[in-house]
Amino acid sequence: MGRAMTNKLLDNFRRKVAFKTSLSDAFRRGHVYNTDFTESQKNKAKARLIPILKEKLPSIIECLDIENGYTEENLCNQIEKLANDITKLLPNDLNNSRFRIGTAQKLINVYWKFLWLFELTEKEPLHCPIDSIILGTLDEPFKSLRWTQLDSIGQYKEIIEEIRIKAEAKDQSIAVWELEVYDQKVN
What is the distance, to the nearest Å, from the Cα of residue 127 to the centroid of all Cα atoms in its chain? Predict the structure, then answer.
């Protein structure tokens, strides 16, 4: 097998890992599906949702990866749009008929982070995935928030601003600061 073919296979594998990791991280504690669903109904809902996300996540990153799209405003708009789009498409499948901002940000930010770590995008993520570990490093009122309940883009922006203050105090970007936090917390 030629070098170009090997690189293409590796890149495809890395993209799949990024996608599956973003799904796992966002859905593991995200309480995404209708709480009245049986396991069979959840699996059917998942079968409807996954192909939509498989199409949308790469498109979102592509939109953010272009020069005039690489802004925090655009990222926040994409997070809010994903939450609203999924809500409109699958309201009956979702917990409280809503795909929350917390879940949308986790999907996009984890996916982007892994593409960056795998060197499949040159653009460093503007934000980090907000989860309990990251929230635990912040002061109140953010420290006691649950990312799974986050459903306001305004509150998301406030959390990111607190994270930015911590990152800048260490002369780091948000993405690099988050990697350091995880390196310290996981060990």
Answer: 9
How does the average pLDDT of the chain come out, rounded?
93
Express each pLDDT in 142-170 by its tens digit.
999 999 999 999 999 999 999 999 999 99
Q: Which of 125, 21, 121, 127 is nearest to 62 (CA)?
A: 121
3-state secondary structure of 15: helix
Question: Cα–Cα distance between 61 and 28 in angstroms, integer?
Answer: 22
Q: Are 115 and 15 in contact (CB under 8 A)?
A: yes
Q: Is 33 helix (H, G, I), strand (E, B) or coil?
A: strand
pLDDT digits (tens, 9 = 90+) for 26-72: 998 878 999 999 999 999 999 999 999 999 999 999 988 777 789 99
| DSSP secondary structure letter of residue 58 | H
Residue 83 CA to residue 97 CA, distance in Å, equals 11
| DSSP secondary structure letters along 110-130 | HHHHHHHHTTS-SSPPSS---
Let me know how long the chain is: 187
Helices (H), the chain: 3-27, 39-65, 72-89, 101-117, 132-136, 153-169, 174-186
* Stated pTM of the model: 0.94
